[in-house]
Design brief:
The structure holds two protein chains of two kinds.
Chain A: H1 4-15, E1 17-21, E2 32-39, E3 45-51, E4 58-59, E5 64-69, E6 72-78, E7 80-81, E8 87-91, E9 100-106, E10 113-119, E11 129-139, E12 142-154, E13 162-173, E14 184-189, H2 208-213, E15 225-227, E16 235-243, E17 261-272, H3 274-286, E18 305-306, E19 308-323
Parallel strand pairs in A: 2-19
Antiparallel strand pairs in A: 2-3, 3-4, 3-8, 5-6, 5-9, 7-8, 9-10, 10-18, 11-12, 12-16, 13-14, 13-15, 13-17, 17-19
Chain B: H1 2-6, H2 16-20, E1 26-28, E2 36-38, E3 46-50, E4 53-54, E5 59-60, E6 65-66, E7 73-79, E8 93-99, E9 108-113, E10 117-127, E11 131-140, H3 142-146, E12 155-170, E13 175-195, E14 201-224, E15 227-249, E16 255-278, E17 284-310, E18 313-324, E19 328-343, E20 347-360, E21 363-377, E22 382-393, E23 395-398, E24 409-412, E25 420-431, E26 437-454, H4 467-470, E27 471-487, E28 492-506, E29 518-519, E30 526-535, E31 540-549, E32 553-554, E33 559-566, E34 575-582, E35 589-590, E36 594-606, E37 611-619, E38 629-636, E39 642-650, E40 655-663
Parallel strand pairs in B: 3-8
Antiparallel strand pairs in B: 1-2, 3-4, 5-6, 7-8, 9-10, 9-40, 10-11, 11-12, 12-13, 13-14, 14-15, 15-16, 16-17, 17-18, 17-19, 19-20, 20-21, 21-22, 22-25, 23-24, 25-26, 26-27, 27-28, 28-29, 28-30, 30-31, 31-36, 32-35, 33-34, 36-37, 37-40, 38-39
Classes of the chains: A mainly beta, B mainly beta.
Amino acid sequence: MKPYIYIFIVAIFTISCTKELPLDSSDDTTLLVMNAYINADSLNNILYLSFTGKYETSPVENASLEIRVNGKLTETISSQRSYSSYSFFDINTRFKPNDVVRFDAFTADSAYHAWAEVTVPHRPAAIEKIDTMSVKYTYQSNTNNYIRYKITFSDLPDEDNYYQIKSLLAITNIPYSYDDYKEYTTQYERSLIYHDDIVLTDGQPSTDQDDEDGLLPTTDNIYGVFDDSRFKNTSYTMTVYNKGIYLSSDNSYYKYDDSGIKIKQTFYLISITKVEYYYMKALNLYDSDSYSEELNEPIKFPSNVHGGTGMIGISAGTSKTITLQ
Amino acid sequence: MAQIKSTPNMLGEADVMKTIQLMPGVQSGVDGSVGLIIRGGAPDQNLILLDGIPLYNVDHLFGFFSIFPPESIKKVTLFKSSFPARFGGRLSSVVDIRTNDGDMNHYHGILSIGLLTSKINIQGPIVKNKTAFNFSARRSYFDILAKPFMTGDDKFSYYFYDINAKINHKFSDRSRLFINAYNGKDHFYNSYNDHDDTNEKYQNKNNMDWGNTIFSGRWNYIFNNQLFSNTTIAYNNYLSDIKISTNTTDDKKNIINTYDSKYHSGIRDWSYQIDFNYNPTPNHDIRFGTEYLYHEFRPEVVSSKIANAINGTIEQDTTYHNISNSKIYANEVSLYAEDNLKIGSKFNMNVGLHFSMFYVHNKTYLSPQPRLSARYQLSQNIALKASYTKMSQYVHLLSYTPIAMPIDLWVPVTDKIKPMRSHQYSFGAYYSGIRNWEFSMETYYKNMKNVLEYKDGVSYFGKSAGWEDKVDMGIGRTIGIEFMAKKSIGKTTGWVSYTLAKSERKFGKESINYGKWFPYKYDRRHNVNITLTHKFSKSIDLGASWVCYSGGTTTIPEKQTTIIQMSGIGESTGHYIDDAPYVGHRNNYRLPWTHRLNLSANFNKKTKYGMRTWNVSLFNVYNAMNPTFVYYSTKDDHDNKTIPSIKKFTLLPFIPSVTYLYKF
C-alpha cells in the first residue's frame, strides 16, 4: 500500500486534465561533466568525463586530465574511450589526507576546460569495537535470524565531518582436499539494515513496515552516508543488521558444513567531503521510491566542478574485520 | 463585505481570501488556492488575524477554500505596507478579520444551500440592548452525496466544517465584553481491501483530521472620552492527527499482521494582549500596548504498532515511537506605540515603534521595528503617501507539496535558523477627481533577510527531523508598481487593477543556485484583475471577475548529464555512470499565463419573512486550461529516443453551480 498522501494525489490527478507544454530549450550549451569517487588509499582510481547533451550524453574523445597535488603537477593523462557515453582516465596518484588536489580536464581542441579542487578529508579514527548478536528481526514482512552489529567509533574532533559506512562479507570456502583444490574467497558487499539507527536515519528511525505502509514517505539511506551533527567530538555506537549466511552449493569438492567455511565481515568507515555527502544524499533521493516527479521538483545534484558540472569526491577510510565463523 | 459576497467564485462559495487575491499586489499561490502571495512574499509571511488572534491554518480542502465564511465576517482589512506598529510577526501582510458582533435589537439570519456546503448564520439579542449573539456554521457534504455511489468495502469520505460563535455583552456604556469561539476541521477517511496471490487479504484504513479551535475574550473599557482599552486573552489550538491501519488476514480469515501508525502535530498558543487608545487632542490618535504569546509547538510525533501472529500465536506485538520530537516552548513578547498625528490640514503621519522579543531554545531574539507612514493632501483630489516599515518573523512553514497538506509544519526559529526580517519602502499617489471613482498608484521595494529555501538535492518529505540542515537562509528582494481604478458607488461597482512586479531570492554560493539571484517561485511579472458587479434591478444583480497573470516559475532539467553511482568497496571499479536530468539553475522555467473569467447572477425576491436569492455561478466560463501544477517527464520519440517533456495539470475547468440563499 502506498502512503495515504498518494491516494489524495492520485485522486487529484484523476480529476485533472493533463497537457504537454512546449519545452523551450533556450540553453543549448554543452558542459563537460567530471565525475569520480576517489579512494585516497588506492592507486587505481577512475575519473569519468562526458559531455552533457540535450537528449543524451556523449564521451569526450582525446581529452586530457592534469592532476596537481598541493599545486604540484603529478600526472597528465589521456582519456580512454569506453563503450558507453563517457570517457575515463585511470589515475595512479596516491593522495594523503589534507592534500589539496586539483583536477583540470581539457578537450583536445581546448574549447572546454573544467576543473575541481578537493581537499582530501582526514582519515576517520579507527573503529573501536564491533559487538555482534544474533537476533530475530522483521524485514520485508518476514521475521528471520539476523546479525545485529553495534559499531563503536569516535568522531574526528573540532571539525565538521561527513562519513560513509559500508560492509563487505568475505566467505572462504575450504576444499575437502588441498591437493586438487585451493581455498577460495568470495566477497560480497552486504547491504545494511539500519532502520533503528538515529544517525543513519537522520533522526527518523522507523520500522520496515513504516517504510512500506507508513504515513510519511521515507528516503532510504542507500549509500550509508551520515554527518557528525549528532555525536560531534564524541564517540557513537551505530546499530545495523544484516542477514545470516545461507550456504548452498552443488559443488561436492568443498565442505559445506560449519568446518568448511570461514566468514569474515569487514566494516569500512570512510571520511568523505561535504559535497560528496550532499551528492550521495541527492542520490538517495533520486533512487528512492518516495521521490515523485509529479510532486517533487527535479533533483539538482550538488557539484564542485567549475566550468562544467559533476562531482569529484575523495575519501579516506578505515576498516575493521571480525570473524563470524 | 458586500464586495466579497458578490464576487463570483468556485461552486458559489464567496471567499474572503479569494477576493483579497483580486487586489493589486496580491496573487494566489497554486491556481485556485486561497494562499496569499503579497508583494513577492511567501504564503507563510501573512499575518492572518481572526478577531486579533493570529492563525496558522486558514484553509480547507487542501488549500482551495478559506476557513472564513463571509456570513460570519463583519470587516476585513488588508495591509500590504504602512503596517501600523500594533501589528507584527510576519513580513508581507496583515489580514485583519473581524467577526460579526451580533445585533443587540433584532434577529437576523442567513441560510444558504450550495453544491459544496450549506451555511447558517443567526444573530440577535439574548437580552435586548444588553447581550447579543452571533452564530455561524458551515459544513460541506461531499461525503453524504458520494455515499450512494460507493459499493463494496471501498469507502471514501471527506468533509469540512466551521463553527463561529460570539457573545457580546454590554455591562455599561463604558464596559463591554466579547467572547468568541471558533472550531473548524477537515476530515478525510478512506478504506479499501486488497489481496495478493497468496490468498492474503489486506484491509486498509486511513483517517486524517486537522483544524483549529480558538477561544478568546475581549474586554473593552472606556476610561474617559480620551482613553479606552481592549484587553484580550486567547487560546488557539491547531491540530493535525492522522491514523492509518492495515490488517492482513490469511485464507481462514485469521489476522496475521496488524499495522497501526499515528501521526500527530500541532501548535498551541496562549496569548494576553492589552491595547490602549489615547486621544489627548484631535490631532493625536495614540495607541500603545503589549502582547504576550506563549507558543507550544508540537512538531510531529509518529508511532507505529506492529503485531504479527502465526497460527493464532502472537509472535510480535511492539509499539515503535518512530519520531518523538519533544514539544518546543517559545515566548514572544511585543510592545508597541504609535501616533496617528495631523500636522496642519494637509499632512498626516503615523509614527510608531514595534519591539518584539522571541525566546526559544535558551536563545533570545530582539527586534526593534520602526514604522513610519505619511500622507500629504496635495490638492482636493490628489494625495500622496509614503511609508517605511521593518518587520520580523519568528515562525516558518515547512511544506513539500505545492498545495496545503495536513503534514505541513510550522516551526519556530532556532539557534541555527534566524528570524526573517524585511524592510519595505512604498510610495503612492491617489486621485479622486472623478465622481464615484478612485484611482491609485503604489510602488514598493522590499528586501528580506533570512528567507528559507531547500538546499539543492534535498527534500523535506514531510518529516521535520534535521530540517535546519536541509534549508538555507538567504536574501530576497521584490519590487513592483500597482495601479487601480475603483468605483464603489452606483449601480455598477468594482475595480480594475494592474501590477508589474518582480521577486527574487539569493542564497549562499555553495548551497543554492551557485549564489546567484534567481526568480521566486511566484514571481509573476504582470497581473491584471477586473472585478465588476452591476445591479440591474432590486431583483437581479450580476457579478464578474477576470484574472490574468503571467506565469510563475518552476525548476526543470535543461539537459542530460551523467551521474556517478557506487557499487563496491574501495576500488573504483564498483562505480557506474548513468544518464540523469541536469538542473542548472533554480526556477529556470517560466510557466504559461493563467486567465479565467467567473460570472455570477443573483436573482432576489422579497418574501413574507425576508429575501430569497438564487445564485447562479459560472467558474472559469471559457474553460481556460490553466496550469495548477507542472512537472518534468520523459517520453520516447519515433526513433525510440528518450526526450524530455513538460506536462501541466489543470485542476479547475469550467464549473457551474447554483446556491440558494435565504435572508431573514
